[in-house]
Specification:
By secondary structure, this protein is of the alpha/beta class. The chain is built from eight helices and eight strands; from the N terminus they run ααβαββββαβαβαααβ. A three-stranded antiparallel beta sheet has the order 2-3-4, with no helix packed on it. A three-stranded parallel beta sheet has the order 6-5-7. A two-stranded antiparallel sheet has the order 1-8. A hairpin with a 2-residue loop joins β3 and β4. The longest helix has 18 residues. The protein is globular and about 90 Å long.
């Protein structure tokens, strides 16, 4: 079912990202519409606005009608959309961490309300790693970490679909591949930004993944410490990136 672009486009409109951020992350995140950081040029990213009414209309137009779920070996308390004797049903796989579980539950509730049967597969890190290695999942709720040089190549180039590659959506598009390859061949930041913007437009039109949020890292520090001016923190160690500029005001004393 996920092979149909229309299904993926409709699913992208079923998730209330702001609700995830406010209810689960205490507002400590920013919504994402594409694979690049929110601080990167992302005007070309196609935005899929939360719109359950449009999703219902779209599914009805595609012939997915609500019906009672009838399987002898399984009971399900909600109506599920079906078409040509097939149910609209998915399994979301994620890691056993509170934020991931809460996010998966929120998505599950949203999908069930729309007639999409949703089951969760919550795994520990070892079992999930094995699943990822074998690409043995339907929908994977997972996080990606990019560096300050936001090279998306490892996550989206077609050469990375097999383990140990990180293209977990098994995404393949020759035009996207070319842009990622060309961006790696130049050190000109403006040219790379243009290539990445064009790549992002292709990717978000294809919708191989639904981008949710970029979390905010909050670090307390002593008020006496001055000079801390880090805006983007990719990993905890990044908070020390301008440590040479840290200082405290010193009092001059006459002897």
């Amino acid at each position: 079912l996920l092979g149909y672009p229309k299904i993926r486009q409709l699913l992208a409109q079923t998730i209330d990202k702001n609700k995830i951020i406010n209810d689960i992350l205490n507002g400590e995140a920013q919504t994402l519409d594409g694979p690049l950081f929110f601080s990167q040029p992302d005007a070309t990213a196609k935005k899929y606005i939360y719109n359950p009414s449009a999703v219902k209309t779209g599914l009805n137009e595609m012939g997915w009608k609500l019906s009672d779920y009838k399987k002898i070996d399984e009971k399900y308390p909600f109506q599920v959309r079906s078409k040509s004797k097939q149910y609209l049903a998915f399994v979301i796989t994620t890691i056993n961490q509170p934020e991931n579980i809460a996010t998966a539950e929120l998505i599950k509730n949203s999908w069930q309300a729309l007639g999409i049967k949703t089951d969760l597969e919550i795994l520990n890190i070892a079992d999930l790693s094995e699943k990822i290695k074998n690409r043995d999942y339907e929908i994977l709720l997972y996080a990606e970490i990019l560096s300050f040089d936001p090279d998306p190549y490892p996550f989206w180039h077609s050469s990375q679909t097999k383990y140990p590659g990180l293209n977990l959506s098994l995404y393949q598009n020759p035009n996207a591949d070319k842009l990622l390859e060309d961006a790696r061949k130049t050190i000109n930041s403006k040219i790379r930004a243009t290539k990445y913007a064009a790549f992002q437009q292709i990717l978000t039109n294809d919708v191989p993944a639904i981008f949710l949020f970029s979390p905010t890292y909050t670090y307390p520090q002593n008020k006496k410490l001055l000079g801390f001016d880090v805006k983007n923190i990719v990993s905890p160690s990044n908070r020390f990136s301008n440590v040479a500029a840290w200082h405290v005001n010193l009092k001059r004393t006459l002897f």
